[in-house]
Amino acid sequence: MPRIEAVDFFYLAMPVVTDEADGSQDALLVRVAAGGHVGWGECEAAPLPSIAAFICPMSHGVCRPVADSVLGQNLESPEDIARIAAAVAYNSMDLLQAPHTFSGVEMALWDILGKMRSEPVWRLLGYAKSHPKTPYASVLFGDTAQETLERARDARKRSFRAAKFGWGPIGRGSVEADAEHFVAAREGLGQDGILLVDTGQIFIEDVELAAARLPAMEKANVLWFEEPFHASALEAYGGLAKRSPKVRLAGGEGAHNESMARQLIDYGGIGYVQIDCGRIGGIGPSKAVADYAVAKGVTFVNHTFTSHLALSASLQPYAGLAAHEICEYPAMPKPLATAISANHLERDTNGQVAAPDTPGLGIEVATTALRGYLQEVEISVDGKRLYSTPRL
Predict the structure, then answer these.
(1) Cβ–Cβ contacts within 10 Å for residue 296, how many?
(2) Which Pfam families match (predicted)?
(3) Of these four, 89, 141, 164, 316, which has the most CB atoms within 10 Å of its CB?
(4) Is pLDDT at 163 greater than 80 in this prediction?
(5) 3-state secondary structure at position 95
(6) 3-state helix vs strand vs coil in the chain, percent to 5
(7) Per-residue pLDDT averaged across 209-237, rounded?
């Protein structure tokens, strides 16, 4: 009977990490061994506390290290993955980093299970086909409207029909200055391009400040207004959702469990729910949110800003949903994120991308290329070594 024999974490980082809102500057890869197979996952979280959550000493009965619920467990079916996830949720309920840590482990378990059965993960999830998605280039707003214009033109030059502009100066200056960026992005993408805006929670809970940007977004034909507020600011989301019949709200990347995502749908009034497999607990809970979104008439979208390993994992939960066709695609990743995988999910002749039709996640991790980014870590308590970086 296949058992989970080993779970290894690898902290990777660029030589210099800046305060730029770019999550591809470091990474936490997870390697899991079970039943003669190796699977890979990636946590979308700060690497060091995520490693610590896996091996930390027990504080009490429901604040236990994630390892206690994973190592030695049977792995033969999707039900086993769900059982392990439930054990982590209960045994580590007071260890708040646990969902982020387990997310990468859970991805790797699906990768292994797919390899065991010679099936892609999306088929194990019950889908008959992996439908192509329209990727949007995920880029940051420029410091000036001219820079934003140039980035939009570059996205279109690289054959992206859609682009999401995020963070940067939006919300930090005047409404008029922000409007210039929206106009510039629209001009660069062209009138037929799909324009998305992400303000990275800059308005906190201030509905009026966020709503002041809506007229300019409507004029620029923005499809969605992403993360105007903190992930849990449900009243603010719900209030803003009523302000524009044209621009829908998007959110959910901050959800680290299914309930948070459902509440954004039910009480936040979002039209697009964006789920990060590397944060919510992995592929299983992401699929549950996708099912819920379908039932509620909300569009499911992946959240992926890093590697193609994370991209493949994030596509699996809604691969079979033909009508949910937009996907985030890492367009400006740091060299580290590009180096993580030996193969990439390239766009087809129609400019679309799909979850691989190969066993597991269909991604080969480029271990040799990553050694230059590897951060050596050792964690000890009272002279006892709990963790040291394994061999990559």
Answers:
(1) 12
(2) MR_MLE_C, MR_MLE_N
(3) 316
(4) yes
(5) coil
(6) 40, 20, 40
(7) 97
